[in-house]
Amino acid sequence: MRLLRRALVAAAVLLAGVTGTAIPARAATPFKVLAFYNGTWDAAHIDFDKEARDWFPKAGAQYGFTWEATTDWSRLSAAGLAGYQVIMFLDDAPPADRRAAFQQYMQNGGAWMGFHVSAFTTDANSWSWYYNSFLGSGNFVTNTWGPTAETLRIEDRTHPSAAGLPATIQSSVSEWYSWSRDLRQNPDIDILASIDASSFPVGTDPNQQWRSGFYPLMWTNKNYKMLYANFGHNGMNYDTNTRTSSTFASAQQNQWLINGLLWLGGAGTSTPPQTPTIDPAAWYSIVNKNSGKCVDAKAAGTTNGTAIQQYTCNGSNAQQFQFATTTGDFRRVNNRGNSAQALDVTNVSTADNAPIQTWNYSGGLNQQWQPVAEADGSYHFVNRNSGKCLDVPGASIVDGIQLVQYACNGTAAQSFQLR
User: Fold this and answer.
1) Do the first three CATH levels of 2-264 and 286-418 match, i.e. the same topology?
2) Cis peptide leading into residue 147 (ω within 30°)
3) pLDDT band at 189 (very low <50, low <70, confident <90, very high)
C-alpha cells in the first residue's frame, strides 16, 4: 500500500475464550480451488501471493482440497472453470473483459473467496454489480498504517466459517481497509468479523490510525456463495524487500479460512472435527526443522533466567517440554528439569530478537505460546504477548545459539517438530 498511498496523495494534490482450538474437519468429498492473481504491484501484496502459493496447497493436502494458482485471467470463463468448485482472487479484481464471465459464474451458483485488494477501488460505479452489490462495500476510503495484528470480534458465530471459534480471535498482521458504504445497512450482507473495540487505536502511524468506530473485516453476501477477507498484506521491509510478518501466523484466522473454504467447497457433510494433537500431559522433544537440533535448557539449568538454546539432541530432561493448557489455545511450555519453570520472553518484551529463557510460571502473557499446526505436522509457536514466533536467530545450525522471538515469517528457523 505504500505505492498506493503515494498515488492517492498525488491524486489529491491534482484534484484537491474457549478451551482449545477446534481443528476444522476434512472435506468428505475432495474439491478443487483455482486462485487468480497478478503479482505485479506492491511488494507486500506480491509477498502475500508467494506465501499463499506455498500455504494453500499444504493446507489442501491436510483438509481434502487441491489448490492451483494462475495469472492467466482468460481462464475465468465457463470452459476455464470447468472442474473447479471454488475460485479465489488473491490480489486484484478481474480485468474488464472477464467481468461478465465472473458475474455469470457467481449468479449460476459459483463459490468465491477474495482477499484485501480484490475489493479495492476508488470508482465503484465502474463495475457497480461487483463493488456495490456483490461486495456491498463501494469505494475504498482509508487504510491503516503500518500493518498490525488485531483482535477481531466474530459477529456471526452461527456461520460455518466461524465453527469452533471463540467470541474474539487474534488476526495476523495486515494493513486494513475501510469503505464508503455501511455494510450494516445492507440486508444482503452478513458481517462475520470486525475490529474489536479493544484493538483501538489500529495502525502505528498517528496520521493513518483508526481510533474508534465500526470496521467490518470479513463478510459474506447472502445471495451468493462467497467470502471476503480484508487481510492479505504482509508486513514488509520495503528497503530490503523482505517479509516481516506472515498472513498465516494466526491459528484462529487460519481456522476461519479453512472452515470457510470447506463451506465454499460444499463440505456440508464431513468427518468430525479432530482433537488437538499435542497431549498437555506428555513430554516432548522440540526439534528445529532447519537445524535438526533440540530446544534445550542451557547446562540443564533449573533456575530463573536459564537460557533456552538449541543443542544436539541427547534425550536429557533439559530437552523435554510439556505443553500445559492455559486458556484458549495457548500453552505454557514447561521444562522437565523443573516443571515450575516455563519458556519466557525476557523482560516481557515485544521486540524482535528478545531472548527466550526459563522463569517460574506466573501466568504472564509472555509465558504463553500458541502452537500453530503446519501442513506437514510441524508447528510454529506464537507468543501471546508479542504475537511473534519462537525463532533460531539467523537460521543458525550451531549448538548453543539462544532462541529468540521474531516476527513470524514462515521459515524453517521458526518451524519445529514434536517428538
Assistant:
1) no
2) no
3) very high
> Between the CA atoms of 130, 225, 229 and 253, what dihedral angle is there, to the nearest 10 degrees?
180
Q: Do 322 and 283 touch, CB atoms closer than 8 A? A: yes
Cell (9 digits) for 203: 495502525
pLDDT of residue 72: 95
CATH code of 286-418, in short, is 2.80.10.50
Cell (9 digits) for 295: 530446544
Closest CA to 135 of 68, 36, 24, 224: 224
Q: Is the distance from CB of 393 to CB of 411 less than 8 angstroms?
A: no
First-residue to last-residue Cα distance in the chain? 42
Place of cell 455501511: 182
Query: What's the pTM?
Result: 0.63
CA angle 11, 120, 203 (to 5 degrees): 80
Per-residue pLDDT at 390 = 96
Q: Which residue has the cell 475504498?
A: 140
Q: Are strands 308-311 and 321-325 parallel, antiparallel or unpaired?
A: unpaired
pLDDT tens across 333-351, in order? 999 999 999 999 999 998 9
**Quick one: fold of 2-264?**
Rossmann fold (3.40.50)
102-146 per-position pLDDT tens digit:
999 998 889 999 999 999 999 999 999 999 999 999 999 999 999
Q: Which cell is 35 given?
A: 486462485
pLDDT above 60 for 16: no
Q: Rounded to the nearest 5 degrees, what angle is found at the Cα of 188, between the Cα atoms of 187 and 194?
A: 85
Asked if 171 and 231 count as a contact pair (C-beta separation under 8 A), the reply is: yes
Euclidean distance between CA atoms 183 and 169, whole angstroms: 21
| Structure confidence by residue, pLDDT tens digits, 68-96 | 999 999 999 888 888 899 999 999 999 99
Grid coordinates representing 37?
492473481
Q: Which three cell numbers stand for residue 372?
A: 500453530
> Distance between CA atoms of 171 and 249, rounded to whole angstroms?
8
Give the strand order in the sheet containing 216-221. Answer: 65-70, 31-36, 86-89, 111-115, 225-229, 216-221, 189-195, 151-154, 168-170
Domain residue spans of the chain: 2-264, 286-418
Radius of gyration for the chain, computed over Cα atoms and rounded to the nearest angstrom: 22
pLDDT at 38: 92
